[in-house]
Amino acid sequence: SLTSNGSAPDPPEHRKVALITGITGQDGSYLTEFLLEKGYDVYGLIRRSSNFNTQRINHIYIDPHNAHKARMKLHYADLSDASSLRRWLDTIAPNEVYNLAAQSHVAVSFEIPDYTADVVATGSLRLLEAVRSHIAATGRTDIKYYQAGSSEMFGATPPPQSETTPFHPRSPYAVSKCAAHWYTVNYREAYGLFACNGILFNHESPRRGESFVTRKITRAVGRIKEGLQSKLFLGNLQASRDWGFAGDYVEAMWMMLQQEKPDDYVVATEESHTVEEFLEVSFGYVGLNWRDHVVIDKRYLRPSEVDNLKGDASKAKKVLGWKPKVGFQQLVKMMVDEDVELAKREKVL
Ligand code: GDP
Question: Is the dihedral of CA 173, 176, 182, 185 positive or negative?
Fold first, then answer.
């Protein structure tokens, strides 16, 4: 057999199997926890990197040598390697495919636009094509695809943004996400694939990458509070975002794939705050004044900026019955609390 531990998989009728690209990321880790809880077997495709990057899923990893217990399994693949995608699809035969992998940083996408397009746009196409050819070869009808879309696709179009709002992307990342969105729509229309686009507004958590503005701020709050740093360098403080909690958003992904028909959904809190407001609340929460610490550094300004994102998630609420559980204040507190603890641990090292 073909599983990493050498044992034959259970017959497909007895298990629900999910395949996740980007499993080592913020959303991949929350989605894996959520699906394991629901009884799924979860297979994650991970990219080779010289440094281990599995910190976010180490707590749920079980060594495959204890195979009877391991319901999350990891395999090497890459969105830039079509044959690896097709091979794992054929081997794993998942019921649900979640495409969460990306070069996901907007500012970095201006530095490496070609790579960003290859992974985010063409990578999604490669995965869709792998799913399509796997279906053509096997005749399976029980496979569903989720595409991680982004509110960045709306870019310069003013809020509130819904499923019917025109896209006006403002970065190589956002343009690539638009391409992935339309590839997904096309595979649905052309081949009848059960494929959904989740247009997720910014979603954060203590697991957010440290160069995204929310986590960059809460990391600094923790370290400043513990006396480990004094300055925080930031770019545009007037940008406004609809920030939700990643743990809530992965549920919406799963819900989309449980519907009768595939469709596209905006997922958002419907509340928007500026970066400056995020600073007020996060520094204020530990009794600090952000103005004593923040320094504007022009290198964090972007060649073209997205000023204002605020979602209209009424379709997800109505059709999926989804709503966010964690609000803005609660999200900021959750992140600051964890980052104060992290800074305390850093201090004793
Ligand atoms: P994005 O919405 O996907 O680009 O998420 P980010 O968290 O990277 O950025 C959110 C907003 O914060 C953008 O409008 C940025 O221009 C703004 N911002 C201001 N200073 C910074 C910074 O130092 N780092 C990042 N990542 N964003 C910043």
Answer: negative
